[in-house]
Automatic annotation (TrEMBL), chain A:
It holds the Pfam family BPD_transp_2. It comes from the Bacteria. This is Branched-chain amino acid ABC transporter permease. It is found in: Cell membrane. The chain crosses the membrane at residues 39-61, 67-87, 94-113, 119-141, 209-227, 258-277, 289-320, 332-351. Residues 356-387 are annotated as: Disordered. Keywords: Cell membrane, Membrane, Transmembrane, Transmembrane helix. GO terms for cellular component: plasma membrane. One of its GO terms (molecular function) is branched-chain amino acid transmembrane transporter activity. It is a multi-pass membrane protein. Its main location: membrane.
Automatic annotation (TrEMBL), chain B:
Residues 3-233 form the ABC transporter domain. GO terms for molecular function: ATP binding; ATP hydrolysis activity; branched-chain amino acid transmembrane transporter activity. It comes from the Bacteria. Keywords: Amino-acid transport, ATP-binding, Nucleotide-binding, Transport. Residues 232-252 are annotated as: Disordered. The keyword Magnesium does not apply. Belongs to the ABC transporter superfamily. GO terms for biological process: L-amino acid transport. This is ABC transporter ATP-binding protein.
Amino acid sequence: MNQKTLQRGNPVSRFRNQLGHFGDVMHDRWMNAPGWQRWIVYIALIVAALLLPSESIGSFMSPDTDWASILFFPIGTFVLLAIGLNVVVGQAGLLDLGFVAFYAVGGYAMALLGTRMGWNFWLIMIVGIGICALSGIILGAPTLRLRGDYLAIVTLGFGEIIRITARNTDEIGGPNGIRGIPHPPSIEGGPVIGDIEIFKYGVLYPQPYYYLLVALAVIVIILVKRWEKSRVGRSWAAIREDEDAAEVMGVPTFRFKMLAFAIGASIGGAMGVLWAAKSISINPNDFQFMLSATILAAVVMGGAGNLPGVILGAFLVAWLPERFRGLQEYRMLIFGAVLVALMIFRPEGLLPSRQRKAELKEGSGGMGTLGAEVPGPESRGEEVASK
Amino acid sequence: MLLEVKDIHVHYGKIAALKGISVEVNEGEIVTLIGANGAGKTTTLKTISGLRGLTSGRIIFDGQDISKMPGHKRVVAGLGQAPEGRGIFPGMTVHDNLLMGAYARTTNSSKELAEAYELFPRLAERRDQAAGTMSGGEQQMLAIGRALMAKPKVLLLDEPSMGLAPLLVQQIFSIIEEINRRGTTVLLVEQNAQQALKLAHRAYVLETGKVVKSAPAAELLDDPDVQAAYLGGGMGHEVPGQAGQAAPEERA
């Protein structure tokens, strides 16, 4: 983008263009950075994440609530859920409004297997991920023939079905949910960070769970990033940008959409397992539609399809309402105003990928139009019917 | 016979879009389907490439019944398609788009890549540009080039002239001719009947989901009914609702 286009338009669009230009420059610098520099950044980020729960940071970040607690929920939880949803929405371009369902399946897997069968947390984590992947496939198999907003409606329904079924099934606690969920097994005398043994899982300190979450997030990010760069990621991008074209290029679109659903569900489920293991008790009201909507807002706001953007978006969506808790009911007003301002200044999200920006301009990319594919003046009835 | 479509019926919900279409394509030919909006041309092509399921009838390609084969496997079998309008991947660069064309291949595709850039020098100039930011004509070139990357036996082209300036249409059509000369069979769907009939060896005329005429393309160019309906000629023929009835008899 040259200097001329940066100066064009009213102050708002000028500001937007300059912001976008700055983002591009930073992105290029990152892409051209040698490997060792990137590794330093990665390691610094992990160290920062481990030091994050300290009191000195917390007194600024959340003066009204316990910082370490909100780092686990909502912040950490939202970040991980957003990474999972980003696979479905940002990469494969499938609008999923019922993502909370997989989080719920993971949570209930932990609660049921932990209390009834007495299984160990780690075992349940593995089994839970499997169950969630399976539920993703079960939801996907009949519904992934739909596109755009129709798919969104069905997934929304699925989210509600899971919650309402849990509420009305007395065998799994009905509306009271399940209590007495076991914690992960502790390791005595493990390493200590800031007076807290990081492998000692109890009720008192949230930090050990937070470290567990960081570990889970690092694994998930590595996996997701690798998928994104692989043939799988390219297939998803093709499906997102033009599903029919992808199919006639030889991409088995249905299979890859199922895979996206299964992977997204597994990540949501893993977070559900971890969350249930910390919270001791869960009930169906923990899995409201609002949570799905909030996570989706985080993904879109951060920049769907771009992992750092999505993480940043989830962090802000979780953190802002907590930071302004002192303002009581007004905090939601501010939160809403921030979202609106973001959509005015950065409709493509805070940190969009360049590819997404181009898609957005073209009005394609599944999520680019949030599934609302409006027939243009040149398109004919039959095209619209097939969308 | 390379591709044979036998009496296919296709429905959108309860509405019949195709009511028994039969098309034959021989190796080395350019065959065109012409007809007005809603005649079923695009649906026919989508059914052949596997994007639409058929209610009845059969599609036989290279001696094999592919009626039930999913679309992505038909690519491997040798059917390449450039989808209607802007069927390119807008967020990917031109180069990545072309590489996506070779997605289904297991063999090296550098020869086809070079050929695509040679056929469309414009694409080479725009190699690293996001495809969605190119003009309509360039996007059409990309769509054709990308379809060729899979080294198809039959190339299915859906309205390559749509929305393009006349000069560009000429250029695209001469490239299609060149592609055919190099040995790829072409099945072309067009609204620009004049151009399509000049290019093709044989043609089918579609009307409301049926084939109403099939003949060598040159014959159809002289056919008074076709002239009246699609070529803007045909004085004295009463074809209600068609534009250009008063146009002179002579053809451009």
